[in-house]
Amino acid sequence: MKRFGIYVAALLAAGCVVGPNYQPPKAVAPGQWGEPLAGGATNRAVAAARWWTAFNDPTLNSLIERAVQSNHDLLIAAARVRQARASYDVAKADFSPSIDAAGSYTRQRASKNSNPLVQARSLENNVYQTGFDAAWEIDVFGGTRRAVESAAANIAAAEFGRDDVLVSLLAEVALNYAEVRGYQSRLAIARDNLKSERDSLEITRAKFAGGVSSELDVAQAIALEATTRSQVPPLETARQTAIHHLDTLLGQSPGALLEELSKDAPVPAAPPEVPVGLPADLLRRRPDVRQAERQLASATALIGVATADLFPKFGLNGAAGLESYSAGDWFRNGSKFWSLGPTAQWRIFDAGRIRANIRLQNALQEQALESYEKTALTAMEDVENALVAYAKEQVHYLALKDAVEANRRSLELANQLYSRGLVDFLNVVQAQTSLYQSQDQLAQSEIAVSTDVIALYKALGGGWDDRTVARRAVDAQRKPR
Question: Which CATH number applies to 25-94+143-310+353-477?
């Protein structure tokens, strides 16, 4: 036994790890953002933790907290993490020997003609056997170590994948909530205009009845009111659809939030300042970039797993137990048996299968590298696009505010002049139409400013510091069965 121990130690000391050693890729990031920072965006370090609280909306805060607890996509991502951890344990178990226990009883009869010297009474007998079989493959060339390395990288990739789902979830809940409040605002504008247009319709009818105006004015007033009224059902449909999507994000049946969100409330106002940090920080913060990097590490390790198949495999096999023809002496010293010895196995011909697998793993590693670089570029593109959208939408919003004020004054003048008989009712129709359109566009721009901020936080990988809390909540809710 001492000799076998020396043999095993010599094999392990001479062992090596085949395949390439992983080196993290160096993604090139510019020193500054290409888009000028405007509209409140600054280069200060990103304040990503609980970014949604910057909107100062308790309902939004509550919706996000509930979504983190019960969203199905997040729970699926958490299960993938547990799957990766279990796969790591499977790979790590290959370092240890395997031991099987077995026991049997056999009633047998030997052939007399095959051995004439055997007495007839000895042809039939019982065989009692029990024992252990053990096998241990020694990881001389590092195939098992590379498999464990790949599995460990897959755990980190799954965790970053879960973080990426969380980032998307936070943003999607906030976006849909902003849309719900935005549709409520647009419906309020439509209803206010309907009231004004119905008042104008009554005026035109009274003037027509008094012979002061023509029936054309009445027809134009009816058409204007009907046109505005037609805008209400699509807005109501869009509002209900957004609420139903929020229900799904929170893991609830569609309609569960109707009562809670039925009362009108303003669109959550964008914070005055949004710190965005530097491009280099983004690549360390975005979970999808870090997930792609860990997937590259896993693919690199699998090249070593495939390469190890080129080399011989060494191991130790052993067996020990009891065997007897009689139950009476089964446990006596003479019934003992054992065996122990080294093994070696080397595949010398496989029609090129091993080398083809190595080429396959190399190709997969190249794909993982390209995927990482693409993900890094996409992350920077997302931030650049969000920056320009956020800055330009604020300019758009200010211009629309001016347009609303001008159209409101135009409608006041048109009504005054029409009441004096100085202009046709068509001027009132045009003024009311322009006011409603500019008010609706202003409401849409207000929604866009808030959703652009949300998109910017998402592009920055927002919610990073709170992912630990979310992980614990999700992992505690779904345990392996």
Answer: 1.20.1600.10
